[in-house]
Amino acid sequence: MIHARGLTREFKVKKETVTAVAGIDLDVEAGQLVAFLGPNGAGKSTTLRMLTTLLPPTSGTATVAGHDVASHPAAVRLRIGYVGQKNSAGENFLVRDELVTQGRCYGLSIRDAAARADELLDLLDLRPLARRKPGTLSGGQRRRLDIALGLIHRPGLLFLDEPSTGLDPKSRADIWQHILRLRETFGTTLFLTTHYLEEADNMAERVVIIDGGRIIADGTAERLKNDLAGDHITITTSTEREARTAARIGDGTATGTTVRLQVPNAAAALPDYLRTLDGAGIKVTTAETARPTLDDVFLALTGRSLTDDDIPA
Amino acid sequence: MTTFLRDTTTVFSREVKPSLREPVGLLFEMGQPLLFLFLFGSLLDGTVGSSWQWFVPGILVMMCLTGPLAAGYTLLVELIGGSMERMMVTPLNRTAMLVGRTMKEMIVLLVQAVLIILLALPLGFELHPVGVLTGLVQLVIFGVGLGSLSFVLAIKSAPGGTLFYIVSQSIMFPLLLCSGVLLPLDAAPAWLQTIGYANPVTYVVDAQRALFAGDLANLSVLYGTAAACAVAAVGLYLGNRAMRRGV
């Protein structure tokens, strides 16, 4: 569905060239659900804008839904759907009117566009809002409308730029339910960006991590976590001296009275570790194990946390 | 070509729907021109012959300036929001996006022009049908150019929008004042007249006055039409280029 080679985009900012995306290679097969993960400014949206023909690449190529984005943008546009970060519906227009217009934009007849609009109003539970203006909708309702607009022409590939950002937990869960149902019912290929780590972790079968305009990791969430981060054991001791000894024994790091170790299988390693510490006369006050998160993966790769918003330029 | 027509219809019908749903909005947009018409018209009555004959065409040109500039504003709002981006991802023809929007503005302009003329009739405005019709055609050509230029300005100003406000606010009144829309330039000092001659609006205003007086053979009609066509050509060229480059 997506084949990108050396995809690069530079911007001129006050006579200086800033590389937002630096040579991305990416292949996404039909039917996949890919989460594109990275801190703010990593190049997520720029990549998405290139793949959706909104922005011409500075260099490199991308074939999306069978057509080159630079030489045949119209053919790509016909086959993909795009749900941007901002609200897709115009403020002056009624919900159903915007859906019909969107269908007309893809060349549907007025009758077909109207029928399809009604179908989507039902599919995304928007029926009672058909004659409202977008400004009167809640955040979750607006997001459902955005998705409906992206689906009007039944695209085989749907791009979503941060579909759940800024929504309350219930609306987020609701949006996800709709996204996952799309996939089950229509086999739609989904490519989405998110900065909610747990979403990428739970929902996507494949996670692509981007940082500084480059792809730094690509695989299932499970594999990335096992390969790159591993489990953690955290214990606390009563004194800092004991903590330092415990850290030396387990090959971990001590901070105050807290010791943290990285191990392949924490649940199996913890009893052994506690016995060894007991033998060394160290009194352990608390002990816990933790599965890694995608943030741990990012931390292991870059030395920074994904949740930090300040990206070094 | 058929897709172009279809896409133009799509954009036009999207844009025109809110105006049809709330036609009262058209009257509110006309508030300022109407105020000017009645205040200045009453003030100038007698000084420039029949003030209505002189003033109505000027007010129409003024609407032709304010309307299209407001059109750029609506595009800017859509550029700052996500709705323009959403349309840019569809195969919708880029030129059709420009033409459809401009067509809607022209319909609005025509409706408003007819309303103004109807309102001025009982005040003593003398109707020369052929001249008025020719004048309206010229206004539409001029408006197409101004509308396109305003869309270009909106596209250049996105995503911030500040540029749009600065330029549209600072350009509006100089254009109006140096064109003789509100006060005749005949009595103006030489330097002001020189500025007036460099302003395309001046030629359109002169032509409109001649046409609304039924004086179709007046040379100013030719100059005004040339000025309107030139603005339309430049506007459509730049507008089309800006739309095609993507937003």
TrEMBL record, chain A:
<dbReference type="GO" id="GO:0046677">
    <property type="term" value="P:response to antibiotic"/>
</dbReference>
<protein>
    <submittedName>
        <fullName>ATP-binding cassette domain-containing protein</fullName>
    </submittedName>
</protein>
<dbReference type="InterPro" id="IPR025302">
    <property type="entry name" value="DrrA1/2-like_C"/>
</dbReference>
<dbReference type="InterPro" id="IPR050763">
    <property type="entry name" value="ABC_transporter_ATP-binding"/>
</dbReference>
<dbReference type="GO" id="GO:0016887">
    <property type="term" value="F:ATP hydrolysis activity"/>
</dbReference>
<dbReference type="GO" id="GO:0005886">
    <property type="term" value="C:plasma membrane"/>
</dbReference>
<keyword id="KW-0067">ATP-binding</keyword>
<keyword id="KW-0813">Transport</keyword>
<dbReference type="GO" id="GO:0005524">
    <property type="term" value="F:ATP binding"/>
</dbReference>
<dbReference type="InterPro" id="IPR003439">
    <property type="entry name" value="ABC_transporter-like_ATP-bd"/>
</dbReference>
<feature type="domain" description="ABC transporter">
    <location>
        <begin position="2"/>
        <end position="237"/>
    </location>
</feature>
<keyword id="KW-0046">Antibiotic resistance</keyword>
<dbReference type="InterPro" id="IPR017871">
    <property type="entry name" value="ABC_transporter-like_CS"/>
</dbReference>
<keyword id="KW-0547">Nucleotide-binding</keyword>
<dbReference type="InterPro" id="IPR003593">
    <property type="entry name" value="AAA+_ATPase"/>
</dbReference>
<dbReference type="Pfam" id="PF13732">
    <property type="entry name" value="DrrA1-3_C"/>
</dbReference>
<dbReference type="InterPro" id="IPR027417">
    <property type="entry name" value="P-loop_NTPase"/>
</dbReference>
<dbReference type="Pfam" id="PF00005">
    <property type="entry name" value="ABC_tran"/>
</dbReference>
UniProtKB/TrEMBL annotation, chain B:
<dbReference type="Pfam" id="PF01061">
    <property type="entry name" value="ABC2_membrane"/>
</dbReference>
<dbReference type="GO" id="GO:0043190">
    <property type="term" value="C:ATP-binding cassette (ABC) transporter complex"/>
</dbReference>
<feature type="transmembrane region" description="Helical">
    <location>
        <begin position="24"/>
        <end position="43"/>
    </location>
</feature>
<feature type="transmembrane region" description="Helical">
    <location>
        <begin position="162"/>
        <end position="183"/>
    </location>
</feature>
<dbReference type="InterPro" id="IPR047817">
    <property type="entry name" value="ABC2_TM_bact-type"/>
</dbReference>
<dbReference type="InterPro" id="IPR051784">
    <property type="entry name" value="Nod_factor_ABC_transporter"/>
</dbReference>
<comment type="similarity">
    <text>Belongs to the ABC-2 integral membrane protein family.</text>
</comment>
<feature type="transmembrane region" description="Helical">
    <location>
        <begin position="131"/>
        <end position="155"/>
    </location>
</feature>
<dbReference type="InterPro" id="IPR013525">
    <property type="entry name" value="ABC2_TM"/>
</dbReference>
<dbReference type="InterPro" id="IPR000412">
    <property type="entry name" value="ABC_2_transport"/>
</dbReference>
<keyword id="KW-0046">Antibiotic resistance</keyword>
<dbReference type="GO" id="GO:0046677">
    <property type="term" value="P:response to antibiotic"/>
</dbReference>
<feature type="transmembrane region" description="Helical">
    <location>
        <begin position="221"/>
        <end position="239"/>
    </location>
</feature>
<protein>
    <recommendedName>
        <fullName>Transport permease protein</fullName>
    </recommendedName>
</protein>
<feature type="transmembrane region" description="Helical">
    <location>
        <begin position="55"/>
        <end position="77"/>
    </location>
</feature>
<feature type="transmembrane region" description="Helical">
    <location>
        <begin position="107"/>
        <end position="125"/>
    </location>
</feature>
<dbReference type="GO" id="GO:0140359">
    <property type="term" value="F:ABC-type transporter activity"/>
</dbReference>
<keyword id="KW-0812">Transmembrane</keyword>
<keyword id="KW-0472">Membrane</keyword>
<feature type="domain" description="ABC transmembrane type-2">
    <location>
        <begin position="20"/>
        <end position="246"/>
    </location>
</feature>
<keyword id="KW-1003">Cell membrane</keyword>
<keyword id="KW-1133">Transmembrane helix</keyword>
